[in-house]
Specification:
9 helices, elongated, mainly beta, CarboxyPept-like_regulatory, disordered N terminus, 18-stranded antiparallel β-sheet
């Protein structure tokens, strides 16, 4: 959601005026029957500058040099030389004839052979040497890195520029340029520059990047945009079997499995920087798969890549992205070492993939220089800082950038800084920016205060009826060391006000020592999740959903007070200790939390029953999230949207007698989530939860297996269970979910164009209840535990209209339980690449 909302901000610009390169040509490659020839190789004659036509045979090629002819080649067709009479030539029609002369015949047509193909012989040599090339040849390495990320509006015509939307902002159109990849005009609207010192140790398998400078145009301090940039551009190695972009796994043209998904053709050979290199063209064997088209030059002795150009095919099953284009260049360090010196990636984000659709370019250029090798650093040097804070990094003077930019900004890039600073003084732009910010964050911004979250304003349940909630938070900036949040809510059926207030203060920035506390009096659906926290402002979706599939009246009045302290002694390892006091009482006359304080006996057949639970609890929890990436260094941080493992352990101690607390117990809970990317087969998530309570406790403190009575898919719940259908004091759940990413549907001809995605999953739970806990139950709710493993399975279709997903879930057993749901359909909305 964050990605698409932020992209919408960029769609408020347009541009004019086209800058002209020395030689620029676009067109289409056809056969004699006027059918497009996909993946034809088009180069300027006498150069290594070229491109591969897309699936519709179209191409665009540009160079700052002057050329007088094109060379066009394609498997099964005669090579053709096309004279260029003008420096700028658009809409060329290039018609290729079938190869006739023996010396013109290309061996491979259509799907190339997997046998006796010289291109594959070279590819196998690349596989053999890929772990011996470049930086892998050295024990240690270090270098300087410069990274430039830019967003540009593209394909906006003059009619759009005259739209009233841009009244008062016409000056932005003075910064128009033309893409040398697509030939489309574009307007730069955002630029971010960073400089790093990079270190690596191949023996220790450790790397470290120290940022030494960062400069962002216009949107300084906007964590959403910074997070968005990090989401888009993860690091990759072209030699890897699979390359991850936009949370999807693309098969690399250098992959060991590439033979199964690509066609390869050996097209040429030439000297490049005094090294003899082969040129190999590659293009996909099938449509709708996550593959590329392009070509690479590879050295004839080291079999190291000298240069590679590739673009994602238009039919690839990926949303909102019309094009992805990648260039990498490698320089010869000495006779045998090729080092990556330039990495360029451009993505064209658009609402559809039509040729003339308007969109946004996202471009990242990464340059490397000043390589040094075999300078050993101690292992502790590579320890990542928990909370990097150096304000000077973000306030470097112009002289720093003049010295540390590896390449100068062009005229339009240099003008972005001044243009965006000016733009933010325009009232109309501020209004547009505020609207998008509200949609992205859920908060309405005022000076030092945010109102919201607006998406929690309305709710409904059988106790409160219609529920209204308003709230807000302090906000002086994204890196605030402290924050106070509060809300109040009102139910129109129970005529009661509820509230919550909490505060956090980071007393030590280096180790992120945070003290927090607060109080909440509200209505809650106990059992909405198993591994719970004492988050004061947590919102229970189950108790405030607008629509449910059954009664949601089994709600609890909760009065929770909590204080805690947490620290992060190691990056992504968090330790928290807390102390809480809560009271629990049924909020409905159709539901009871009653328990026996004195069991029934001959002398007292009714026993003594209590309905109010008063409980004091101390807890300590450990949370480890390797490879988690965060933005900012304040008391609250944003997460970069990339998969990471999550391990959580919580120990709780019930303190009977403290503040009139009722129960003594010990509880342990463990949660583990592991995402697994299985190359082209998609991604799996495995989730394990287990816990046990030692001691005698009432229903309000039991571990309720989370059901899902909403119409929406909710992670870590069971779609076919009702609330309180299973209750335990000892449990283990296991879930497996897999996203095929559309790979299966892509093999079915009539379903390819739908670009749907396939999902499957299985959930299971086992649990028990002690005799002592059964004995004190006076709630009238029958205690059922899944002593025989309960399980359910699901299959789903995603990417329906690009935003909707349907999950179909079947109950595997316990079919004879009262009101058992044997089958359920759940839906969810989301914006996914």
């Amino acid at each position: 959601m964050k990605k698409v909302i932020l992209l919408s901000l960029f769609f408020v610009f347009a541009f004019a005026n086209i800058s002209i390169a020395q030689t620029k040509v676009s067109g289409i490659v056809l056969d004699k029957s006027n059918q497009p020839i996909p993946f034809a190789n088009v180069v300027f004659k006498g150069s290594n500058t070229g491109i591969v036509s897309n699936e519709d045979g179209r191409f665009y090629l540009e160079s700052p040099n002057t050329y007088t002819a094109l060379l066009v080649t394609s498997a099964g067709f005669s090579d053709k030389e096309v004279p260029l009479e003008k420096a700028v030539s658009y809409d060329f029609k290039i018609i290729l004839g079938e190869a006739e002369a023996l010396n013109e015949v290309v061996i491979f047509t259509g799907k190339t052979s997997k046998k006796n193909n010289p291109a594959l012989d070279i590819l196998r040599k690349i596989w053999e040497r890929k772990r011996k090339n470049g930086l892998y040849q050295f024990n240690q390495y270090q270098m300087q890195k410069y990274e430039k990320v830019e967003f540009d509006m593209n394909t906006i015509d003059s009619a759009f520029m005259k739209n009233k939307l841009f009244k008062g902002m016409e000056f932005v159109f003075d910064h128009v340029d033309t893409s040398d990849v697509t030939g489309k005009t574009y307007l730069p609207i955002f630029i971010n520059e960073s400089v790093y010192d990079v270190y690596g140790d191949n023996k220790l398998k450790k790397t470290k990047e120290n940022i030494t400078g960062n400069k962002m145009s216009g949107f300084n301090g906007n964590q959403q945009i910074l997070s968005f940039v990090k989401d888009l551009y993860s690091d990759y190695n072209i030699y890897d079997n699979h390359l991850k972009f936009f949370d999807k796994s693309f098969t690399s043209p250098l992959s060991r499995t590439g033979i199964d998904v690509y066609n390869y053709v050996l097209k040429d050979s030439a000297y490049i920087d005094k090294k003899w290199c082969y040129n190999i063209v590659f293009y996909p064997r099938r449509k709708n798969e996550l593959t590329f088209k392009g070509d690479f030059w590879v050295n004839d002795t080291t079999f190291a890549i000298k240069k590679i150009n590739m673009g994602v095919t238009k039919s690839a099953n990926i949303n909102w992205v019309k094009d992805i284009y990648i260039e990498q260049e490698f320089e010869v360090e000495n006779d045998s070492v090729f080092l990556l010196t330039r990495d360029y990636m451009m993505s064209d984000f658009a609402l559809n993939k039509k040729e003339k659709s308007k969109g946004v370019y996202g471009k990242r250029t990464t340059l490397y220089r000043n390589h040094k090798f075999n300078i050993q650093k101690p292992e502790k040097f590579y320890k990542e800082e928990v909370n990097f804070i150096d304000n000077a990094v973000y306030e470097r003077p112009p002289e720093f950038w003049d010295e540390n930019r590896f390449e100068k900004l062009n005229k339009d890039e240099a003008g972005i800084y001044k243009m965006l600073d000016t733009l933010q003084t325009v009232k109309r732009f501020k209004q547009l920016y505020s609207l998008v910010s509200i949609l992205g964050s859920g908060y309405v911004e005022f000076k030092n205060f945010d109102f919201g979250p607006i998406f929690s304003t309305f709710g409904y349940n059988e106790v409160e009826g219609l529920r209204l909630r308003v709230g807000g938070r302090t906000y002086f900036g994204p890196n605030d060391p402290w924050r106070v949040q509060a809300y109040t809510a009102y139910g129109f059926d129970d005529n009661k006000f509820k509230y919550g207030v909490s505060g956090k203060w980071m007393v030590d920035k280096k180790n992120r020592i945070i003290i927090s506390g607060g109080n909440r009096r509200d209505i809650e659906q106990i059992g909405a999740s198993l591994t719970t926290t004492n988050d004061i402002l947590g919102r229970s979706f189950a108790s405030s959903a607008l629509f449910t599939t059954g009664s949601n009246g089994k709600l609890t009045n909760i009065n929770l007070t909590n204080v805690s302290v947490e620290m992060e002694p190691k990056k992504n390892f968090v330790v928290q200790a807390g102390f809480s006091y809560r009271t629990l009482e049924s909020a409905s006359n159709i539901f009871s939390l009653d328990y026996y304080t004195t069991l029934p006996s001959v002398a007292n057949p009714s026993g003594v029953v209590e309905g109010l639970v008063k409980q004091t609890e101390a807890n300590i929890q450990f949370e480890y999230m390797p490879n988690r990436k965060t933005i900012g260094y304040g008391v609250e941080r944003d997460l970069v949207d990339s998969p990471f493992s999550h391990f959580f352990v919580n120990f709780s101690y019930g303190l009977k007698g403290v503040l009139d607390s009722d129960f003594a117990y010990e509880k342990i809970q463990i949660f583990y989530k592991q995402p697994i990317i299985i190359g082209p087969l998609g991604r799996s998530n495995i989730i394990l939860e287990t816990g046990k309570t030692f001691g005698t406790i009432p229903l309000g403190l039991m571990s309720v297996i989370p059901g899902n009575q909403t119409y929406f898919t909710i992670e870590n719940t069971f779609s076919n269970l009702n609330f309180y259908e299973f209750v335990t004091d000892q449990y283990t759940t296991l879930q497996w979910n897999h996203d095929f990413g559309g790979r299966l549907f892509a093999r079915i001809p009539f379903m390819r164009k739908l670009n749907w995605r396939e999902f499957i999953g299985v959930r299971a739970v086992h649990g028990t209840i002690s005799d002592a806990n059964r004995a004190i139950n006076a709630s009238g709710l029958p205690y059922n535990a899944p002593e025989k493993v309960y399980w359910e399975y699901n299959a789903g279709i995603g990417n329906i209209f690009k935003v909707f997903r349907l999950d179909f879930s079947w109950r595997g057993n316990y079919l004879d339980m009262p009101d058992a749901h044997k089958f359920a359909i759940k839906g969810s909305f989301g914006f996914y690449f």
